[in-house]
Amino acid sequence: MSQSPGPVVTRRRLGGELRRLRDGLGLKLEDVARNLDCSPSKISRLENGKGVPRWRDVRDMLDVYRVPEGDERERLLDWARTGRTPMWWSDYSDVLAPDMAMYVEYEWDAARIDAYEAHIVHGLLQTRDYARGVLRSAWGGTHSVAQIERLAEVRMRRQGALTADHGLTFRCVLDESTLYRVVESAEVLAHQVEHLIHIAEAEHVDVRVLPFSAGLVPASRESFAKLQFTAGIEHGIVYVERPGTASEFLADRNEVSLHDRRMAALVAASLSEDESVPLMKRALRRIGDA
């Protein structure tokens, strides 16, 4: 059973419809802004799904676009209400960076995610202790112990997207080095690899390993995730996480297609899940022997 679209996808759907209505009347952003006594940038942000819609603003825009009372008008106003609905990650605004908060929104609404991780296990697959270690490494110099713990809690709550009734299909290619790179301790790493073996049993989760024997695959230079949606974002988006710098969301069709090809190359070079699980078990034995 798939969930209903959440706020981020609903805002994108609403924005697309508002842009279609404006274009249909041949109006410029400046024309609408003048009618509503606001800035053109505000209209642009609403059309791009980046602004949080106020029901009154959407109502006034529909008046400008001469949308009569009826099903279409009510549907768009309902989307405006949904687009303002606070979600669980709103409770973590004190510790969650804006770009990561945006990613969590997209991740929660996605119908399918294809991800590649070059250095660490993907957040949706991490144990709490492993996540805590990753976060300490990234933020320990600037965040308190309590803040790190709250970020770890976010990571655990994100994994609710992997429950069978949420509707997400998840495929992740992990570089083999992630199975051996110690985070916190060998014991923490061992529990993490055990968790990967266990979660790979889920039908809607596909965990694959890019083995050392694959050599230098050009597409494996950086970690990224391609997110697809049932509606509202036609070609999907790509998230490229760059620790220490601003992460990037790519929505341009050419950029998305480029990363589709990169993912296809990574999947082709990786082991199947049936082949990956025995490799994980061998890694687990080596960790225990170390």
From TrEMBL:
GO MF term list: DNA binding
SUPFAM superfamilies hit by this protein: lambda repressor-like DNA-binding domains
Database matches in InterPro entries: Cro/C1-type_HTH (IPR001387), DUF5753 (IPR043917), Lambda_DNA-bd_dom_sf (IPR010982)
Top-level taxon: Bacteria
Family matches, as CDD domains: HTH_XRE
Domain HTH cro/C1-type: 18-73
Signal sequence region: none
A Pfam family hit: HTH_31
Entry protein name: Helix-turn-helix protein
Organism: Actinomycetospora succinea
Lineage: Bacteria, Bacillati, Actinomycetota, Actinomycetes, Pseudonocardiales
